Amino acid sequence: MPNDTNHADSSPTTDVYAVHGADPEVLAYGMAKYSRSSLSLRESLAELNEQKAEKFLNTFYFQYGHRSIADLAHLAFAIEKLSILAATVLVDEPRWDGQERSTRYQDFQKSGYYVPDFGGDETAQELYRGTIDSLFAEYRYFSTAMFDYLRERTPRPEEMKQDAYERTLKARAFDLSRYLLPMATNTSLGQIVSARTLENQVSRLLSSPNGEVRKLGELLKKAAREAAYNVNHAAGEGLVHEVGQRSAELAESVRKVALREVHSAPTLVKYAEASPYEQESRRELSGAAAELIGSLPIDPAPLVDLLEDEPLEVELATTLLYQHSHHSYRQIRGLVEGMSAARRNEIVDLGLRHRGRHDEVARAYCAGEKFRFDILMDIGAFRDMHRHRRCVQILQEYTTLHGFDRPEDIGTAGLGGRYDAAMNQAHLASATLAGRPAAEANERSQYVIPLAYRKRSLFKMDFAEALYISELRSGPAGHFSYRNVAYAMYEAVAARYPELAKYFRVTDVREPVDLLKR
Predict the structure, then answer these.
(1) CA distance 86 to 231
(2) Which fold has domain 76-227+405-447?
(3) Which of 116, 309, 341, 445 sits CB 3.0–4.6 Å from 434 for a disulfide?
(4) Distance between CA atoms of residues 146 and 138, nearest Å
């Protein structure tokens, strides 16, 4: 008979099974062993414990740089009672999954707000609190006033229940009143991220010039290393008590299993620290932007500007300066194109010269996408558009320099004057706080800016993503602000590539919208 001992099984059975109950790092270790062991995952997990996982990770993750191992450990976090400003920084990760409190479906009247440390500057703190208290009062007023206005002009259909009718109109009213919410408003969010994304996130937060954001980085790192909240703890206690009636020894065994502490990523994030690469690059590039752009007046810009192709070195230099200014990409590109090649290369070098051995290249170097949109939209719309992760986003700081948007319904309701007065008060307060003699003055000034003010962002993407955003965000159930952005993106692509326009399944934002249809 022939010897078949070295032959593979001619009829292997594929085995597929879900895994539950393993600590995130232990599971990451178990999966990583596929490349170094013939054991099945069941067999690997059976012989593992937290100590072995830590030893493995210290060797292969930190010494040899196999950072993809951290992609295998996924962690859930709740981050509660942080400002909207800090939340937008927290979620600014390309590989991020989560949900934040919605300004459409939740009333933020009782949320409270973040107050930074004013270092004894009582005048500035009084102005800060007074401005935000006033904005919250206006938010409450406009929430009620706009609900009443929408109810008067939108009769309830007979087939629609009263509670559904009121709930729908309240959501539409919140779409309008959210413009009054300041960036200091408290929100909450949940995220499920890989340990690698968490490590990058923690490092980025710790590198921020904003005190609240740095504190968030510390809290995230701490939460990853300490015992996680156990949703089954109460049930486990009950089980231990019940078993303990019969056997103390058995109860102790059950306790070790049912009530053991789980630490999300004690090893994978323990070395996450502030990034000198990010900090030094920010310092040098912001200095270069101030020197090259200075007090140059900001040219008017459209809601959406689809940019033309250009040499890669021009795109890189322009993008690096863009994120440290308030000018449009087109205006900065004009300056960059007028530079010598040596000066352009010097700017490109500023963002790379401090890069360490394990540092990812800064986001500004993600270049070469065909579709690049420079978008000047209100902050509320930006928060919605910010959720699109399958594109590169280069963001400028919050400011009042670009003015604010006023929803049409607020004007037709006869409340335009009151709305404008609230916005102007916030603008003056922001300017005053920015002028205070403190290193954190600009940071504090951003917290009083309402969501109505405009923010400039550069979105780079491929054709599929341009199609997706335009279709999804132009839908009639969406917020009118980002609907306008999405439709303008479609119009820009259609104007440049007429033959491609037929593939966009967009909704014309000029058509009337039934407020009761979601």
Answers:
(1) 27
(2) Gyrase A; domain 2 (3.30.1360)
(3) 445
(4) 12
